[in-house]
Design goal:
7 helices, DNA-binding, 9% strand, mainly alpha, homodimer
DNA sequence: CTTACCATGTAAGGCGTTACATGATTCA
DNA sequence: TGAATCATGTAACGCCTTACATGGTAAG
């Protein structure tokens, strides 16, 4: 297993817990995994297809509704694939904050502009933090229901601590710039 | 200015402070901007070329050495382009941590494996933090030399506070998993 | 003399987003 | 009946990384 496509692994990981539709996978990306991974429909559906062709997942039509609904389940090969990936050291650490770019070049336009970017960022993060805290409460309430919940909680805690640090920085940076940056 | 390619902006931003070669730009990416943006030679050189063709940067051969050396400077149009970009709200906030993916799916292999991933992460971050603290010291020592230094310092502070939060999480997560995750 | 670093670039190919296209169902 | 959400997908296109290819220079 040299260069696995990470989306293969993420989706297989989700499927290893329960069978899901493409739509549901996207939901997970936008909620549970949102603070550290993302994906669009345009990558999810083709990936699901590839997984099927390689025998790592199988689809079965959900006949419970009239609506077209394709549910994907992991195969034993898929399961082996995830486990193998989970054992390898993690290589991808990527962060891209356009806001920080604008702060870095902030001298060009001055403190007013920079403060605006910080405020916008602060508001975004505050919202993310609220969402994560809600998830934290839910997870804490059902920790013993499933061993996996402890691991989910760990990633939520990571997000919370990170976002708190962001907010602390926002305050520090705001003071610094308000006092003339010295 | 609808969808600017961010690398255009980053490079132009760097050039707005001083004329640089492609190699020097890559250096900045790997040091100063490293904690919140990245780029490879394979994207830097072609971008520099595009910037030239659009009249946003000009190149002048550096005759001071026998070695081939192409230094790029920003044009007034390039400068206007950066300023305009700096005024727009930031849109890109991207974080991808493969380590967190492996923690999220951690129940699959158990606490031992998860702890290994955490330890590796912790070591990486500790190194990054050391590098950032060194940059912080340097910047603090020459804050008044250039107004831009205050803004650079702000981004370094962001990295430091973020990484400290990561390390705090590592400790929390390690205790949690060592005590059986409850 | 050879290692490390300076220096520039290209080609192939992967990965992923955006926008588009379509339609069912539920709820107010 | 209209809006929101459920649900699946494709096509175009852009962006970037990796690997490759080449050579100069400085220091030990």
């Amino acid at each position: 297993m040299a260069k696995e496509k990470k989306l293969d692994c993420v989706i297989l990981g989700l499927l290893s817990h329960e069978a899901l539709t493409g739509y549901e996978i996207k939901k997970r990306m936008d909620t549970t995994l949102h603070s550290f991974w993302g994906a669009s429909y345009g990558s999810i559906y083709p990936t699901l297809n590839g997984l099927m062709k390689r025998g790592l997942a199988i689809q079965h039509m959900d006949a419970s509704t009239k609506r077209q609904k394709i549910r994907y389940a992991i195969t034993p090969q898929g399961h082996a694939y995830v486990k193998d990936w989970l054992k390898q050291p993690a290589t991808i650490h990527e962060v891209r904050y356009e806001m920080l770019l604008k702060i870095f070049f902030g001298a060009e336009l001055g403190a007013e502009q920079a403060l605006k970017h910080i405020r916008a960022f602060q508001e975004d993060i505050q919202q993310e933090l609220t969402a994560l805290r809600a998830m934290e409460d839910i997870l804490k309430a059902c920790l013993q229901e499933d061993k996996a919940h402890s691991y989910y909680l760990l990633t939520v805690r990571f997000g919370i601590q990170t976002y708190q640090a962001y907010l602390a920085w926002c305050e520090e940076a705001t003071s610094f710039l308000s006092e003339g940056g010295n």
